[in-house]
Write a structure and sequence with these properties.
Layout (H helix, E strand, L loop, with lengths): L2 H6 L4 H13 L4 E17 L2 E19 L2 E7 L4 H20 L16 E5 L11 H15 L5 E19 L4 E19 L2 E7 L5 E2 L3 H6 L2 H15 L3 E2 L3 E7 L1 H13 L4 H5 L28 E4 L20 E6 L2 E2 L6 H6 L9 E2 L8 E2 L4 E3 L6 H6 L3 E13 L5 E13 L2 E7 L1 E6 H6 L1 E4 L6 E10 L4 E9 L2 E10 L3
Parallel strand pairs: 4-6, 9-19, 10-17
Antiparallel strand pairs: 1-2, 1-5, 2-3, 5-6, 6-7, 6-8, 10-24, 11-12, 11-16, 12-13, 14-15, 17-18, 18-19, 18-20, 20-24, 21-24, 22-23
Helix pairs in contact: 2-3, 4-6
């Protein structure tokens, strides 16, 4: 039996359903149970040697119950008749204690019931957990060797990863859901050195991950891309620093995707707006009264959260509260119109239903509002047509570093690669390009977004949020964008 089928069998659905019934009999007004079995593998080759070969599995379950306005959650890696009784008793005890300290007269409102049942499976052509390790290593060694063909490249690395998860969800409203999700991806890194200076060029920092089988890794063409990445690292370390000052900029798809993540996705998470994430992740400048009124960007800017995009990391059948995947507008023609939401946060501001954005990173965590596939919708034209409109400017691609304030109003980004644009044509390489701006000013200066032929979904593995910390897999679609009057700064030398 394959490893992933073996871990799926460790979740006894009948025992989890028994926990629901015991919670109901113990006085719970509502209860939901969630089981999660996961398998992960990772292979890395660095400087001509195997750097890492790892396989990890994890499984467990959790029970969340409500009594009045109080909630209680308990979880365990053990799923037996005994553990069901113990975990149910813990969750009930916590919910009862929580209900006693809620403000007098506070109503319990969990929003629209989740009653859907069914099964969801990732589209998989080649099971990544059945691909022989030798085959994986041959590809990685070949790609990493291609990075080292260039004299200035001193540190080189190639890697691939695969994830599989089986989720079971049920609640006292009648939902019964099974989800089988497979994700894969990989990338490259080359660090070049020239005298006292070093510079890194990557393939994958911009999000080379998707919900698919090993065929996704093959489509990345790591061996071919390594020749480009190695050459660019070799050239960039010796390139001139970027000229600083205000200019017109074309931003490539994967840098645009990370801008969407940080300055669009996070501030539209409704739990941040309501204050429950302020302690760690910060809040948001997008207050509820601004919905439908606030100009977030230019008319060219349209943003959506869509958990139905085929092959994207933020896609599923149902979120971790049992809400069906859906598409939610966030910004329409530059106007802020919507939030990423869960059942309770949607109810708190009077939305008709949850946006289906409640997810947990583990069986031992409760769901919180997370990004799904938050995307910048495409406009018209090609990348070449955007560049052709620029007489004197810059092209920026691939995120290098980034930081934001706790309201997501001010941000700073740097790019791995920068090219001069002169007379509508790409020119010489520059290094060390960065920029700072306020979120609505940046998006307000977006003149154009390239069309569907340039639109690509990028998958990111490490969106961190919550206390205790939860790291989620998310995705963002974006086409290149043309931005007026962006002040580019020079980092390093």
């Amino acid at each position: 039996m394959a490893e992933k089928e073996a871990i799926e069998r460790k979740l006894d659905e009948e025992l989890m359903l028994a926990a629901l019934e015991q919670a109901r009999q113990a006085g719970a007004d509502y209860a939901e149970v969630r089981g999660l079995a996961e398998l992960q593998s990772e292979v890395r080759v660095k400087n001509g040697e195997i750097n890492k070969m790892m396989s990890r599995e994890d499984n467990g379950w959790g029970l969340n119950v409500r009594i009045g306005a109080g909630w209680g959650f308990a979880s365990s890696a053990e799923l037996t008749g005994k553990s069901v009784k113990e975990i149910t008793a813990q969750a009930i005890q916590l919910a009862a204690a929580s209900a006693r300290v809620q403000p007098r007269g506070q109503a319990a409102n969990y929003g629209t019931p989740s009653t859907a049942s069914g099964e969801y499976r990732s589209p998989v052509q080649i099971d990544p957990f059945r691909v022989p390790p030798r085959e994986q290593l041959e590809m990685l060694f070949s790609a990493e060797a291609n990075l080292r063909r260039f004299d200035r490249v001193k540190v080189s690395e190639s890697h691939l990863q695969a994830f599989h998860s089986f989720k079971f969800f049920a609640n006292t409203e009648g939902a019964r859901q099974r989800q089988f999700i497979t994700e894969t991806g990989g990338g490259l890194s080359a660090i070049a050195v020239e005298g006292p200076y070093s510079y890194q060029r990557t393939y994958g920092r911009g999000g080379n991950y998707g919900q698919a089988g090993y065929e996704y890794i093959l489509q990345l063409q790591l061996e071919d891309e390594a020749l480009r990445v190695g050459q660019e690292a070799h050239d960039l370390v010796a390139a001139d620093p970027v000229p600083a000052g205000p200019t017109t900029v074309v931003i490539g798809s994967n840098l645009a995707a990370l801008l969407v993540h940080e300055s669009c996705g996070h501030p539209t998470e409704l739990d941040r707006v309501l204050g429950s994430e302020n302690a760690f992740a910060g809040g948001s400048f997008l207050e509820p009264q601004m919905r439908g009124q606030f100009r977030y960007g230019s008319p060219a800017v349209n943003l959506t959260a869509d958990a139905t995009i085929a092959g994207a990391l933020g896609t599923f059948g149902w979120d971790d509260e049992g809400t069906p995947a859906r598409r939610t507008p966030l910004v329409e023609n530059g106007i802020f119109v919507g939030y990423l939401s869960s059942r309770d946060t949607a109810s708190a501001i009077g939305l008709s239903a949850s946006g289906g954005a409640a997810r947990a990173s583990s069986w031992s965590r409760t769901p919180i509002v997370r990004m799904t596939n938050v995307s910048l919708e495409p406009g018209e034209g090609s990348l070449e047509s955007l560049i052709s409109e620029v007489e004197d400017g810059l092209y920026l691609e691939t995120p290098s570093s980034w930081s934001l304030d706790d309201k997501r109003m001010n941000f700073h980004f740097s790019a791995e690669i920068c090219r001069e644009i002169k007379g509508g044509q790409l020119g010489r390489l520059y290094k060390g390009a960065s920029f700072m701006e306020r979120t609505p000013i940046f998006w307000g200066n977006v003149k154009k977004v390239a069309g569907p032929e340039e639109w690509k979904v990028w998958g990111f593995l490490s969106c961190a949020k919550g206390e205790p910390l939860q790291s989620a897999h998310v995705a963002h679609g974006a086409s290149p964008v043309l931005v007026n009057n962006l002040t580019v700064q020079r980092e390093g030398k």
